[in-house]
Amino acid sequence: QVQLVESGGGLVQPGGSLRLSCAASGFTLDYYAIGWFRQAPGKEREGVSCISSSVGSTYYADSVKGRFTISRNNAKNTVYLQMNSLKPEDTAVYYCAIRAINRFWDGSRWYVLDAYDYWGQGTQVTVSS
Question: Is residue 50 classed as helix, strand or coil in its secondary structure?
Fold first, then answer.
C-alpha cells in the first residue's frame, strides 16, 4: 500500500523558512516523480514543485522560483521542500503526491494534478506576523 506522509508545516513569520518532508513507502515504481502541491482557502490546488527519481530533475512554479528548493534522499525515500523568504500568500495546506513516469520523461505538465496516483494528507503552512 502506497503511503505518503508530509511533515514540517507550522506557523512562521513573513521572511522566515520552513522545511517540509514527504516520506514515501509501499511503491515499486522504477521511475517516478514526487510533486509538492498546495491549496489555499477558497482556491484550487496548484503545483509548487516536482522532482524526478531518475536524474533528479527539478521543476518549480514561477511563484516560488528562487525561494523554494526541492531535494530528495533516495535511501530514505524522502523528498524535501525547503521554503525560504516565505510570504503570507504561501499560506496553504501543502501536499505531496507521486506519479509514475518513464525514463525519458521531460517534466512536461508536471503540475497536472490528475497525473498523480497517490497523495498524502497534507500539512498546514501559515505565514503570518
Answer: strand
pLDDT in tens, 40-80: 999 999 999 999 987 889 999 999 999 999 999 988 889 99
| Secondary structure (3-state) at 81 | strand
- Residue reference for cell 507521486: 98
Tell which residue, 95, 90, 93, has the closest CA to residue 128: 90
Neighbours of 30 (CB within 10 A): 10
Type of residue at 56: G
Cell numbers given for 122: 497534507
- 94 Cβ neighbours under 8 A, 6+ residues apart: 6, 9, 20, 36, 37, 38, 48, 81, 122, 123, 124, 125
Residue 53, all three cell numbers: 527519481
Q: Rounded to an integer, what distance in angstroms lies between the CA atom of residue 66 and that of residue 36? A: 16
